Structure formats: C-alpha cells, structure tokens
Amino acid sequence: MRSITRGHVKTGLDSVRGAKMRNFWTMLGVIIGVASVITVIAIGNGVKRQVSGQIHHIGSDVITVRPAQLQTGSGGLNSTLLTGLSISGSLSQRDVTTVAQTKGVAAVAPLAIVGGEAKGDNGTYKDGFVIGTTGDLSSLLNQSMAFGTFLSDADSGTDTAVLGQHAADMLFNEDVPLGHSFVFHGHEFIVRGIFNNFTTTPLSQQANFNNAMFIPYDVAESITNNSAPTYEILAKARSTDQTKQVTHDINSRLEKAHGGQNDLTVQEGSQNLAASNNILDLLTVMIAGVAAISLVVGGIGIMNVMLVSVAERMREIGIRKAVGATNRQILSQFMIEASLLSVVGGIIGVALAYVLNVLIRLATSLQPVITWQTVVLSTVVSLTVGVVFGSVPALKAARKHPIEALRSQ
Amino acid sequence: MALIELKDVSKLYGFGDATTLALDEVNLTIEKGEFVAVMGPSGCGKSTLMNVIGLLDKPSHGEYRFDGKSAARLKPNQTAKIRRDTIGFIFQFFNLLPRLTVLENVALPLAYKGITLTRREKMASQMLERVGIQDREYFLPSQLSGGQAQSAAIARALVNNPKLIIADEPTGNLDSGNSRLVMELLADIHKMGNTILFVTHNPELTRYATRVVYMHDGSIIHDEKTALGQVATTARKVMYSIPTITEEDALAGVSALMKALPDKIEPRKRKKSAVSKKSARKPVRRQKAKKQKARA
Q: For residue A14, which residues of chain B lie inside 8 Å, CB to CB?
C-alpha cells in the first residue's frame, strides 16, 4: 500500500514538473490569494501591535482605576464615542490609599494632572502637561530611561522632575539637560531623568507621555493646594497570575469606600486595549474576508486548470485504466496533483508575503507582523482549496469510461 | 475450461436512430495457448470485440466468461485488477505515456499492483531486455522509432506475465520491417504458452497465427485453424472479396511481394512507399491551399 502512495506522489510530481507553465498559472491564483491573506492579516496585526504597544507603555498586567464616565449618549452601545458627552470625575487621595492597602498590590502610582505652563531655557512650553506621580510609576511603565533615573520615594517633597523626550527638547537647548531646571508654579524643578521616546500612534486613548513632565505626587498636591485632579491610579499585583484577583479586590474595596457606589472603573491593562482592539479586529476580519475571496477565486482557477488538464490527458487516463489502474488510483493521482499545486502555490505565496512585508515596511510607516498562525492558517486553507476544487476534476477523470478515454485524442 | 467464452454477445452503441450494432450475437471460444488472428474490414467490430474480451467494455447482451468469471458480474474495480494482472494490451498507436521514460512506462502496471519502486524497475528492465531495447530504458517514447515504441508497449503488456495478450492492430502503424520484428516478438511470447489475440488487416501476418477469425458487420463469418508459418487459406479469399482497395490492402500486396523476395526487396520497397505517400499527400495540400486562397 505504501508503495502505491509513493508511486502516486511521484506521478503527481512528474505531471507537475512536466507542464511547468500551465502549473504556474494554476498556482498563481493560490499564490496571490495566500500572499494577500497573509499580508492583510499582517498589516492588521501590525497596526494592532503599534496601537497596543503605545497603550503598553502601561503594561498589560497593570491595573488601572479611573473615574467612571457619566454617559449622556443618545443610547446604544459606544455611541458616546461619536455623539455623547462624556464627563469624568476625579479620584481622591483616599482612593490612592485604598488601592495601596489592598492585599497583593505591589506598586501604586497615581497620575495627577497639574494645570499651568512650564518655563525652561527656551521659554514657555505650551504643549506639555505636568503629572504628579510616585516612584512606583517606573515599574508600571514599559519604558526605559534615556538618561538619569526616575523619581524615587526619596524624591517626594523635593522639586525634581523627569521629562518626556519632546518636553526635554522643547524646554532646553541641551541634548542632555540633566541638572537643568524649569519653572512651574513658582517652583524651580531640577531635571533628574529623561525618558526614551514613547512611540505614538493614532487611535490611542492614552496621553502622549513624550510631552509630559513628571513631578512627585505630594509636590503636585502642595503647589495646587490639593486641587490637582488625579485622573488615573495605576497598580500592579505581586505576580501576573494574581492580577485578576487583585483587580477584583480593588474594585470591591473602592466600592465599599464609596458607600456602595460603583462610580469607578477598575480594569486590567488587557481590558484597556479592548475598545481599540475591537475596531481593529473587525477591520482585520473584514479585510481577511476580502482576501479569503481571492483564495476561493484562486481555488476556482485550480479547478479550471485541472479540468483542462483532465480533458487534455484523457488518453493518458485511458491508458492507465487499460493497464489496470482502478478508479481510486486515478482519483488519488489527480487529487495529489491538485493538492501539490496548491501547497506549492501556498508556499510561494508565503514567501511572497514576506517580500511584501519588507516592501511595506520600507515604503510606509506600517509595520506588518506575520505570525506563524497566519502562515499555518493560510497554508492549510490553500491545501483545503486544492483538495476541494481538485476533487471535481479528479472525480471526472476517475469515472471516465476507459474506452471513451482511450478513443479521445 | 476455455479462457474466453462468448455466448450470443452483442454490443450496441448510441441511441434511437443513431444506434449501431457493433457486435451481433457473437459466439466465440478461445482456449489457452491459442494464437488467434482476427481479420475483417474496417468497422466490422473487431476493436469492439477486443475491448469486450479485454474487459474494457461490457457487452450489451449475451454472456461473456473470462477465465470462468462472468464479466457482467464484475465491478469496475475487479475488472481493473483483472486487466492489471491477467491481460496485456498492445495498441496500434503504442499508447505509451509521453512524459514517462520507457522504463517507467513498462513499470506502470506493476506500480498499480503496488510493487516497490526498485523491484518494478528491475522487472521492467528485464522485460525490456527480453524485447531487445534495454539500451533505450531512459529514452522518452518520442525518441523511439515505431518498432522500438511498439516493443516497449509489448514489454509493458508482458511485464505482469498475463495469461492473455490482446493486440489491436499492433503492426497497423509500422513499416514491414518493424511489423516483422513485432510479430516475431509475439510469436516468441506465444511459444512461452501465452494466449494471444491480435487484429490485423494484413493476410500475410496470419502465418504467425494458429487460428484465424473473420468478421463482417459485427458477426463472425468464418473461423479456421491454420498451421503455424502458413498464410491462412481464406485470408486471401477475404482479401480479394473486399471490393474497395484500401491502403492496408496495398500494404498487404507489398508484403506478399516481400515474401517472394524477402531480402532484396525490403530496403527499396520502404523508400518507394515513402515516396508514394508523399506524392499522394501533395495534391491534397495544394487543393487546400487553393481553397484557402479562394476564401481569401
């Protein structure tokens, strides 16, 4: 039995090798189909990763606490995004302590926004914003320092600051303005660290930290007389697998502290991504659907060429039957041929997708990501396409009456 | 038990007014070891008879028993296996697969039997040696002469050591030298005890047969035993009773001449026939050209 199969694989290979041009055209459909499916999914994944990468400045294992939005939308899901008015309250110092006291919390950093303009060597910096936070933030952000170090607990109460890249460029003439100072609310803040560039992408709901100036939380409180709104509290569990439990605990503790009112949103970092991911997933599915249609078209191409091939090779089928090939052996020969064409087409398509990937990276700001799942999926799909669309001509060949087949030219 | 038993076998083609009767209640019994020549004019049902006997086709009516088994009861898979294991086919146009080498062509029936690659190539190679074209193993069929191609086809028919060999005009496409080569090969095989059934238009070739069957309009009109090496007596009569003179008849005449002067005439005759063929074609081409011009 094994030798039969081996013989058939060889026959299939032979006929593929024998008619190179015809087979190339057959495969072209599959090649384009597979390449476009992979590329489209890769672009979708790439955009997703770029967006989530930015949100990932706050790591996906970080728990965020935000005031719940008072939604006055015109009804319907997510409609506030377009038409609704969204108002949010702020968090209090007490909430920060509540979160910090929750069991299993390893790090807590409130983010308080302080209004006002900063004045550096280059004059007033208008685009920037000042955030009051604690030293724990460095462990909650997935970002390294370009120069210096982040604020630490020892810095609390002192007028020190850490800058985002853009803020540093705008405030000072120096390349490395460590030790320089800027004036904010009458205080002179000394720069002790500068962040690496945070990548930015549209669709992100997060503030652009490149423009941010981080100062100690208590300094922010004191210069504003405790009126700086804390818009977000970031926290982290001791270990990643506790994140869910800790999120839940924080939520229930805060609810208790607020007298049973659920006016805060406590989310894991991964949930944070959900909104933009939903849109992107929809887009990916849609475009992949378009690409899948091209795969089907490629499959029909295979079927057509196989039908022509069967018609062309009627005599061969007749001869094979005359020397004793059973219907099943003829069937498997043509099926193997069709699958072979589609698998080879699929492999070439994958290679083409990688080439396209490089070209897209060079030509545009998109950064497509090809995952192995995509490659496996499209190869499996192309094989399925080959088997499904190859079966019609193969059955036609197998069922041909030997005499009719022999007589045809 | 006879190898082949046909009882009132009829074969119809087509429907309604277009129905043709290819075989008309044919009765025929062939024993093991016979070397049967089937003769008759074109369209008399010889090929249909071969196809029915070779299990490539089923009779419309009547009973056909091959090796004791009733053909009507066999399923397509079973007939395929019988064809593979016990019947060898030789065709007028050789019917070698053009993209396979000679060796692969010969090994084809073995592949369908499930014999390993090395073994079947060895067996095919031995068979090619037997038919005398072992040095052409890795040639493609298109690189062979007619005689060599038919030898390869014979090797393919023989490679499974079949009980029955069916040759449908094996020499129909060959010149007289190659015809003789092929017939000598078949005669050789016959000596080994195989049953051979072949169709021919050439009465000359009946000298290889032990029995000659004459067909006309789907029926067997005459059946005679003949001594090996002797042209069947009725063969000539049949030849002369055909009113129209076909190309085959002309060839038959030439080969009769060949028999009278076997060594001297052969090379010259080949040239002559080549020339005559050319000259016969030319006027046709000119006519076509003229027609095309007229159309333009």
A: 99-100
Q: Do A315 and B95 touch (CB under 8 A)?
A: yes
Amino acid at B123: M
Measured distance between the N- and C-terminal CA atoms of chain A, rounded to whole angstroms: 32
List the alpha helices (DSSP H) in A313-371: 314-322, 327-363
Domain segments of chain A as ranges: 2-53+278-407, 62-272
Angle subtended at Cα A40 by Cα A35 and Cα A41, rounded to the nearest 5 degrees: 105
| A174 within 8 A of A204, measured Cβ to Cβ | no
pLDDT of residue A385: 78
- pTM for the structure as a whole: 0.60
Please check the confidence at residue B268 and state whether its pLDDT lies above 70. Answer: no
- Interface contact A1, partner B, CB < 8 A: yes
A6 touches chain B (CB under 8 A): yes
C-beta separation of B66 from B55 below 8 A: yes
Q: Say yes or no to pLDDT of B292 above 50.
A: yes
Lowest mean pLDDT among A218-222, A300-304, B25-29: A300-304
Using alpha carbons only, what angle is made at residue A89 by residues A88 and A93, rounded to the nearest 5 degrees? 140
CA distance B185 to B180: 8
Tell me, what's the pLDDT at B235?
67
Count other Cβ atoms within 10 Å, centred on residue A79. 12
Comparison of pLDDT for A30 and B79, the residue scoring more: B79
Determine how β-strand A86-88 pairs with β-strand B20-30: unpaired
Per-residue pLDDT tens over the stretch A165-207: 888 888 888 778 888 888 888 888 888 888 887 766 544 455 6
- DSSP code of A68? P
- Which positions 7-36 of A are in contact with B (Cβ < 8 Å)? 7, 11, 14-15, 18
User: Do B56 and A14 count as a contact with CB atoms less than 8 A apart?
Assistant: no
**SS3 state at A263:** coil
Q: Tokens for B40?
A: 């008759």
> Would you list the DSSP string of B54-65?
TTSS--SEEEEE
- Mean pLDDT, rounded, of chain A: 77
> Is the CB of B56 inside 8 Å of chain A's CB atoms?
yes
Structure tokens at A225: 């007389």
Report the helix count and the strand count for chain A, using DSSP H and E: 13, 14
Residues 6+ apart with CB under 8 A from B114: A1, A3, A4
pLDDT tens-digit series, residues B160-173: 888 889 988 888 87
Q: What is the ipTM of this complex?
A: 0.74
Q: In chain B, what are the domains?
A: 4-243 (3.40.50.300)
Which of A17, A323, A328, A336 to mutate against chain B (most B CBs within 10 Å)? A323
- Work out the pLDDT band at A10, boundaries 50, 70, 90: low
Give the pLDDT mean for A394-404: 85
Which spans in chain B are helix H?
Answer: 46-53, 76-86, 102-113, 117-131, 146-158, 176-191, 233-241, 247-260, 262-295
pLDDT band at A73, cuts 50/70/90?
Answer: very low
* Rounded CA separation A261/A280 (Å): 33
The packing angle between helices A274-312 and A314-322, to 10°, is 70
Q: Residue B13 pairs with which residues in a beta bridge?
A: B20
Q: Say what angle helices A327-363 and B76-86 make with each other, to 10 degrees.
A: 100
